[in-house]
User: Fold this.
Amino acid sequence: MLESEIRTPAFLFNSRAMRSYFQLFVFIISICSISGIKAQEKPMTPENELCLKCHTNQTFTFQNTLTDAEDKRMMNPLYIMNKDHFASGVHGKFKCTDCHSSDYETYPHNAELKLEPLSTCLDCHGGDEQYAAYQFEKIDEEFQKSVHFQKSGESFTCSKCHDQHYYQAKSRTSSEVSEIVGFSNEMCMSCHSNNNKFHLISDEIKPELNKIHDWLPNQELHFRNIRCIECHTEVVDSLSVSHNILPKEQALRNCVECHSKNSMLIASLYKYENLQNRTSEGKLNTIIANKSYVIGAYQNPLLNNISILIFLMALAGIGIHLIFRIIKK
Amino acid sequence: MSSESKIYFYPIWLRIWHGINALGILILIFTGINMQYSNPNFKLMDFELAVNLHNIFGILVSVNYLLFFIGNILTTNKKYYRLKLKGLTKRLKLQVIYYTSGMFKHQQAPFPLSEKRKFNPMQKVAYLSVMYLFVPGLIFTGLALLFPETIIEEVYSFSGIFLTAVLHSSLGFLVSIFLIVHLYVASIGKNPADNFKSIVNGYHDISGH
Assistant:
């Protein structure tokens, strides 16, 4: 507990101190929620019913042209879609055939359709004024620097994280931090906690997320409250979401980065956490395991330096005294 | 070294208290630094372990403080802490002069230790503030952090817990500084190890002063 300091109110409420992007993130959310950018419930186009008749159910029926009988089969579970998620996604107003070939309207689907190249995000959004606010090109640029692209190349597409069917710009439309974090982290988890999807990209053994992060206490709580990208990307001031996933060696580890700057936030959460734990677990146990220590010095550079100065002065005083004691013995 | 020059300075209860306190404070400082500067790249010990040890030893040192407090009420040890304000500055000055020059000229200490005087004026002021201000302050704020529902929510728009934690760590810092100086001053004597021996066996050799 050496060198502790007291932050001045000016520091606490100085918006320049909100440079950490975690704070920037919270900041943007609040701005967005104030300005009321909200996703409206969009009804899906009726044409989609044809596809969804089969693609939302466990089973499907079709007219077998060979036997001329009605056949009932099991649907491939990976091709079963969630209608509600589609409708609330950014492309919820689309017809399926806006992206997929209209030849899909017949079943059995033509085998050649498998070869159909599908549009990427950039194909539609690149250079489009309407979406300038999202900075698609800049995102693409950043993404190409990321470890994913560097290691796996073109096979790692935007769609590997952003499902074109369901993607929502949550950090712009939601005001609930927990919802944003959940949605965002699910993009990473859908692959990093799923062997099958992971092996689409890599033949390596998937490292276990909770083992990799076992140095991080309260892992579950952290993963519920901060986005993976908070620690794994570099901040780009001009982008609200950095897409440059850095090599693991460069991931943020330093607790103080977040904890000293957000101490107000965390302080108010302590109490709640603590009381909750105490009612659910044994009493003595929770008192001993109490985490009410605000991590990270309340670092104010001035006070930090003062305390270091006091410390060094004490040492210097002792050193000089000691030298005299030896000389004058 | 004749046996007459030795006085029984530290009764057994005081030595037990001091031993537990020394161990406890060292562990608290070590684990405290660990939490304050928690950083897995430079990890002295596991974070969770540091938290648990800090909590356990915090409680131990607090209970131990009661021994010190009650011990001083019940025994004659309290007389050593009595501080006369009149002429205090003058006495402090004398002591400072002794420490900064007199002792190098092998002069007599202005306040030699005896059965009646265990601490010189500087020690008195230091010990009084540490034992009756800093340590109780640490215990209070520490216990408050263990039971955060007892803390006032907001003090002029500051989080109460935030202020309590800052106070706690600031006092911790001061006690750490005290500890360093305390250990150094203890090495002043005829033989640097003398005072350390005394606090273990209870006897103090006053012939050197």
